[in-house]
Amino acid sequence: MTVLQIVFLVTGLVTLLAGVMVVASPKLVHAALWLIVSLAGVAVLFVLLNANFLAVVQVVVYIGAIAILVIFAVMLTRRVMADSGPTHNPTWWLALLSALVLFGGLLALITQLPAFGATEAALPAADSLTDLGTSLVDVNRYLLPFEVASVLLLAALIGAMAVARPASEDEEGGA
Amino acid sequence: MGDPFGLIGRWLIDLVTGWGMEPEAALTLLRFLGAAILATVLLLACFFLIVAERKILGRFQDRYGPNRVGPWGVFQTVADFVKLIGKEIVVPDGIDKPVYWLAPLLVVMSVVGIWAVVPFAPGFRGTDLNVGVLYIVSIGAIGTLGIIMAGWSSNNKFALLGAFRAVAQLVSYEIPMVLTLLIPTMLAGSMGVTAIVEAQKDLWFIAAAPLAAAVFLISSVAENGRAPFDLMEGESEIVAGFNIEYGGLAFGMFYVGEFLHAFTVGVLFSTLFLGGWRGPGAETYPLLGLFYFFAKALVVWFVTVWVRASFPRVRIDQLLALNWKFLTPLALVIVALTAVVDKLAAEQGWSQLLALLAANAVLALGMFAVLGAYGRSVRKREDSLRGNAAALPARSAR
């Protein structure tokens, strides 16, 4: 077993355990912090796959934004900090069963793939980051999804402003 | 003397492999060793930075600054450090222990981590990530997380309020900072910090993008949370801030993180906009490059201290208005304009520098015109309010 494989296994275990803790932890803030550990684990997996860009974006977008999520969690739970109700209901074994079935199915499918068990292919010499950048503005590749996503985000941005705007705008003096 | 850093590296590898280690393991060991040395040297440099900053601030405020411990007071920080170590660690009741102790570590880590991608001199750098600029942003995000963790886990409402405030400030000012980081990326055609320094061979980027450099410096100072943006701490409003419940060395870590971040701002600015280690003769004598690097960083650092000493603290609404109504739109316009002008100049065969400078000048003139008009309208409204204050509802006077 190489060092990389050990790192992969440890990271995978930590990511999964943190994911379990997200749903099992009774405090909402702790759940959000465990979510950060889980997402950071995914970032490490990206690094192991030589996808530096995705790893860094994972940290910026998820871990950076989760600070805000934690704030909301704090704001929502400040009054019910002592809440210690059960974290699971009686049908938890059904969820476990379906998760296991899903995992088994995926495993069965993936082992059928011809690429399964193949050794790591050498990355193309061209900079994959540049390739990613050009593919987003290439008409034949991902230009349309990219532009649709940007329009969607813009619409969401404007919608958020419209929702947050005070209803009685005229009384505010138009400032 | 051609390549002293490469020589040292090869000598170290030869030494370790000579002890019977495999080359790959030796390289890994040396990487860890290098990271440990870099972090230690940085934290030790804080002794100097803190005393220098206090001396400079003292002079600005017409006093001597620290002048008792050692010659000219240079050992003041050492004495403070010894005092901090000697203090009892007071752990408040009802805190969230793991989160509470993790928070200062994350804050210091987010500052030290930036240095991993900074090229100090030709051939002397931590690592050359091809997404270096984005990495700097992502490491900064972890610092924000550390602050909210500190505020929440302290079980103190003032700490929590301070953390809310700090996160509002840090998350907002991240936006113009990220947008202006795109300018060196665009001009160099790469997100790697080393490639950005390489691209400034003929021309420092501050010449081609002065407005972007200014916006970057302002938002960096705000990210650091220093005057005039030192709203994370407000003695009169929220007792101290997110770090109120920390004492002894745990508080010292937040303190060191802040002072080291101030110097890191200088390092980042000089690397991205002032050519990093570039200077006359730096190619042939890399040690000279190291000197240029720290000289430039110290100059920018001095400017931030100068700003700190000169400007009063802004209010929280002014802080957020400056970001959302001024810096963010300006940064967006700069990004769009630089992209278009840069492409046009390349296609039409204009001088890239002159085209970008002209675009910046037009943008600056437009900016001042808009700001002037806005100021006049505000004054006009205030005058009219003062004129017939009784006739208008009081709440519209903002």
Could you characterize what this model shows?
In chain A, 69% of the residues lie in helices and 0% in strands. By secondary structure, chain A is mainly α. The N and C termini of chain A lie far apart (66 Å). Chain B is mostly helical and 398 residues long. Chain B has a domain at 93-348. A two-stranded antiparallel sheet of chain B has the order 1-2. The interface between A and B is medium-sized, with 24 and 26 residues.
Layout of SSEs?
The complex is a heterodimer of chains A (175) and B (398).
Chain A: H1 3-24, H2 28-48, H3 52-77, H4 92-112, H5 128-136, H6 143-164
Chain B: H1 4-18, H2 23-60, H3 76-86, H4 97-114, E1 119-121, E2 124-125, H5 132-153, H6 157-188, H7 193-199, H8 205-208, H9 210-224, H10 235-238, H11 248-273, H12 286-310, H13 316-348, H14 352-387
Antiparallel strand pairs in B: 1-2
Helix pairs in contact in B: 1-2, 2-11, 2-12, 4-5, 4-11, 5-6, 6-7, 6-9, 6-13, 9-11, 9-13, 11-12, 13-14
Short description:
The complex is a heterodimer of chains A (175) and B (398). Helices cover 69% and strands 0% of the residues of chain A. Chain A contains six helices and no strands.
Backbone CA Rg of chain B = 24 Å
Number of strands of chain A: 0
Helix share, percent of chain A: 55-70%
How would you classify the quaternary structure? heterodimer
Main pleated sheet of chain B: 2 strands, antiparallel
Distance between the termini of chain A: 66 Å
- Principal-axes geometry of chain B comes out as globular
Features of this protein?
heterodimer; A: 175 residues; extended; B: 398 residues; mainly alpha; 72% helix
